[in-house]
């Protein structure tokens, strides 16, 4: 049986490739669990210092595999609240709580939960030809995988509502212009740029990068006072790290820093 998620760890970058290209990498139960195991490994394995998530073939991910939800097979309607709790929400929480950077290379269409899994990542690059589609409205569902949260936070209500209610495809360049993603890049350059970014993050001061991720995620709901306290605590930890000592020493010695992620 083919692996539904390909996993590779090289030079500190854990690359996870969604791998059902003939179904546009639509998510099956097996794939959900493989993706989650990959992100969990990034939590547990100190050799992982950055994650790169992408898709095989012409799509990033078309969301839930609808073949697994065929109502023509009969039986009771599925409890989709339960499928979110079982399959989607733990993975979304694992991505957001990972103290290491997660780069997403959106190599093609990202629809439904596929779009929203991408938006949960820390830095999103997309091929110029990619599109983001909140496909849920087309099949009578609501945005999930954190989409109602991330779209509204990043874009504001007007754009979030229009995307979610119309399910209109959002081209990668417009997503970048609106600040929904980091960059749209030429299709042929996507993987080189995403890999180079992930590699450079993996060679970075992992502890400090993890603290930075936490600070930025907390900022949306914190008051300035709360955020200043959080910065103080985070800077205290960062200031005690070996990577901070190395960073300052390297600066003073006019050489590149050699961070060890601790
Ligand atoms: O269920 C729960 O647990 C709740 C959670 C839900 C989360 C969700 O993600 S709900 C949203 C599910 N996703 C969608 O509704 C998107 C469905 N797909 C599309 O709208 C289109 O395929 C795309 C816009 C993504 C791409 O269009 P296009 O024209 O480039 O490709 P295509 O021809 O539609 O698709 C190619 C093949 O992939 C095709 O199969 P075929 O004809 O070659 O045998 C198509 O059926 C298959 N495919 C695409 N998306 C899915 C899929 N098969 C199963 N599930 C899919 N989601």
UniProtKB/TrEMBL annotation:
Keywords: Isomerase
InterPro entries: ClpP/crotonase-like_dom_sf (IPR029045), Enoyl-CoA_hydra/iso (IPR001753), Enoyl-CoA_hydra_C (IPR014748), PaaB1 (IPR011968)
Coiled coil stretches, renumbered: none
Biological process, per Gene Ontology: phenylacetate catabolic process
Pfam families: ECH_1
Domain of life from the UniProt record: Bacteria
Keyword Ribonucleoprotein: no
A single GO molecular function term of this UniProt record: isomerase activity
Keyword Isomerase found: yes
Entry's family note: Belongs to the enoyl-CoA hydratase/isomerase family.
Name by which UniProt lists this protein: 2-(1,2-epoxy-1,2-dihydrophenyl)acetyl-CoA isomerase
Protein source organism: Paracoccus hibiscisoli
């Amino acid at each position: 049986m083919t692996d539904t998620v390909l996993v590779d760890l090289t030079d500190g970058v854990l690359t996870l490739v969604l791998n059902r290209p003939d179904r546009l990498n639509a998510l099956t139960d097996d794939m959900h669990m493989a993706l989650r195991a990959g992100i969990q490994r990034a939590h547990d394995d100190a050799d992982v210092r950055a994650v790169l998530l992408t898709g095989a073939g012409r799509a990033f991910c078309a969301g839930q595999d609808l073949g697994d939800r065929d109502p023509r097979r009969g039986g009771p309607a599925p409890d989709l609240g339960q499928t979110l709790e079982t399959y989607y929400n733990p993975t979304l929480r694992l991505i957001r709580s990972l103290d290491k950077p997660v780069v997403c290379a959106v190599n093609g269409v990202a629809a439904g939960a596929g779009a929203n899994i991408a938006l949960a990542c820390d830095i999103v690059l997309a091929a110029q030809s990619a599109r983001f589609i909140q496909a849920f409205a087309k099949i009578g569902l609501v945005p999930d995988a954190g989409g109602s949260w991330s779209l509204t936070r990043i874009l504001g209500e007007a754009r979030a509502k229009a995307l979610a209610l119309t399910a209109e495809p959002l081209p990668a360049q417009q997503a970048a212009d609106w600040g929904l993603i980091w960059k749209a890049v030429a299709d042929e350059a996507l993987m080189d740029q995403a890999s180079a970014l992930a590699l450079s993050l993996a060679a970075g001061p992992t502890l400090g990068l993890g603290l930075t991720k936490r600070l930025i995620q907390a900022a949306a709901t914190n008051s300035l006072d709360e955020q200043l306290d959080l910065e103080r605590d985070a800077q205290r930890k960062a200031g005690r790290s070996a990577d901070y000592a190395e960073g300052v020493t390297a600066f003073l010695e006019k050489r590149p820093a050699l961070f060890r992620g601790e």
